[in-house]
Design brief:
Blueprint (H helix, E strand, L loop, with lengths): L1 H12 L4 E5 L3 E2 L39 H4 L2 H9 L2 E4 L6 E6 L2 H10 L4 E4 L4 E6 L5 E5 L2 E4 L5 E2 L9 E2 L2 H8 L28 H16 L5 H16 L7 H13 L4 H14 L3
Parallel strand pairs: 6-10
Antiparallel strand pairs: 1-2, 1-3, 3-9, 4-6, 4-8, 5-6, 7-8
Helix pairs in contact: 6-7, 6-8, 7-9
């Protein structure tokens, strides 16, 4: 619908990255070129990526503020078939606390600072200024949508937007298992080699990834350096045989972003580690 495209252009002019949603409030699927992550995926907005597909592929990672892209042929066809407009909260520097029912709203009113509120079909979106890791089901009826996520655009709502409180960040910190991104939105190439596998068993690889996650999340200082050295160690041990998958890389990137690293720094650190190892 032309109405959706106009809404998207207005939001983009306010530096809010947008994407179309099809029926069911879900993003448009990957085109044939990008199916099964064959293109290598597309990282977040403003981060150099592997995929330059002109279609609105890759869910939240396709969100853009570029009016030329929004009104291009592939996107215009998507707008005509779209059921709604979505945006990438993290790309706009925002966090959405998605309250899915009356009980969740009551909890938020008793525990979170008052902020800008947008009514939804079943509950409310509470918008805060600041970005963080996204997490689902942090408590009954409550999801957090910020980085590596999308939210449906439902208008500006009412109230004055408050800064992101520690109470919201703490909710995500207690749900680490729900924040791992899907494979198609990985921000770095996983399969970097096809040499002989030395692992013999998946347990060795799993232990290595788990230890790397712990090393990153346990860093108390020099986080940038810790992330790079951990990426370097993982690639040195597991990067040449092709056993690393997108899911493994996603876990490492998520651990780094939990410590406050940006998606761009994760991409750069991964690329630098590969270069240092001659991959």
């Amino acid at each position: 619908m032309i109405e959706h495209e106009n809404t998207a252009l207005a939001l983009a002019a306010s530096r809010i990255p947008v994407l179309p949603l099809r029926a069911g409030k879900v993003p448009f699927g990957n085109c044939r070129r990008c199916a099964d992550n064959a293109c290598g995926g597309r990282p977040s907005m403003k981060t150099p990526g592997l995929c330059t597909c002109p279609d609105p592929c890759h869910a939240w990672a396709a969100a853009t503020t570029d009016p030329t892209v929004i009104s291009s042929g592939p996107w215009r066809r998507a707008w005509l078939a779209a059921s709604a407009v979505a945006y990438h909260p993290g790309g706009a520097g925002l966090t959405v606390v998605d309250l899915d029912n009356a009980d969740a709203i009551t909890w938020a009113r008793e525990n979170l600072p008052t902020t800008q509120t947008v009514p939804t079909t079943r509950g409310e979106h509470w918008l805060y200024l600041g970005r963080m890791q996204s997490a689902n089901a942090v408590r009954p009826g409550v999801d957090i949508k910020s980085t590596m996520a999308y939210a449906r655009w439902l208008g500006f709502g009412t109230g004055t937007m408050a800064y992101l409180p520690d109470a919201v960040r703490a909710l995500a910190a207690s749900k680490p298992a729900t924040t791992r991104p899907a494979a198609q939105v990985i921000t770095g190439p996983a399969l970097v080699g096809r040499g002989e596998c030395r692992h013999r068993t998946p347990v060795f690889l799993e232990r290595g990834i788990a230890m790397a996650e712990q090393r990153i999340t346990g860093a108390r200082e020099a986080v940038h350096t810790t992330v790079y050295r951990t990426f370097l160690a993982v690639l040195s041990a597991h990067g040449r045989c092709g056993c690393l998958t997108d899911a493994h890389v996603a876990r490492l990137f998520t651990a780094a972003q939990t410590k406050g690293e940006s998606a761009r720094h994760c991409v750069d650190a991964w690329a630098n580690a590969r270069t240092a190892l001659g991959m």
